[in-house]
Amino acid sequence: MEIKVTENGYKRIGEFFGRHSFMLAVLKLVYKYLPYPVFVAYPSLLVYLFFHYGIISEEFLKVLFVPAVVFVAVTLFRKICNRQRPYEKYDIKPIVHKEKKGQSFPSRHAASEFIIAMAFLYVSPALGIVLLFVGAVMCVSRVLCGVHFIKDVLVGAALSVLIGYIGFFLL
What does the DSSP 8-state code read for residue 84? Predict the structure, then answer.
């Protein structure tokens, strides 16, 4: 069973948010600003690890290199696959203005957010759990805004969780 949003589904989502201006404003805020604290948290984690453990510590090196591997792998895979975004494939206007063509699968935002969450889970499980929740909310906003398919964000998140688990907890 595949979970997906059809063209009609995206149109209904757009109509819903068109009728509910407060909900639209919240969605746009979440879409635009939720990634920032996460992406500020990551270098903060690196700085913490640098001063607490040192630059050649296992903790610092894992938190530096495992996310780098995910980011490079997802970026290359997106270029190779070059899948269309919902607003390209369907006759819809995304809720947020976007002009980017292709490179929708997997979502790099989802992959980046979830690998950062996995890094935090490795260092501070409580903060990692919070960031996993934040990542889920961010993924939902990307789908609701019509810039990613559900599969895009699920695969981005799943790749990061898998690689993160292997890189942080098994190696």
Answer: P
What is the pTM (predicted TM-score) of this model?
A: 0.95
Cα torsion at 77, 3, 153, 107 (round to 10°)? 40
Beta carbons of 47 and 96 less than 8 angstroms apart? no
Q: Nearest-CA neighbor of 7 among 86, 102, 84? A: 86
Written as six digits, the tokens of 40 are 């500020």
**pLDDT tens digits along 8-24:** 999 999 999 999 999 99
Residues 6+ apart with CB under 8 A from 96: 28, 31, 32, 145, 147
Percent composition of the chain: helix, strand, coil (DSSP 3-state, to 5):
75, 0, 25
Q: How far is the C-alpha of 101 from the C-alpha of 16, rounded, in Å?
A: 25
Neighbour count for residue 47 (Cβ, 10 Å): 11
Asked whether the beta carbons of 16 and 83 are under 8 A apart, the reply is no
Q: CA torsion angle for 94, 36, 152, 66 (degrees, to 10)?
A: 160
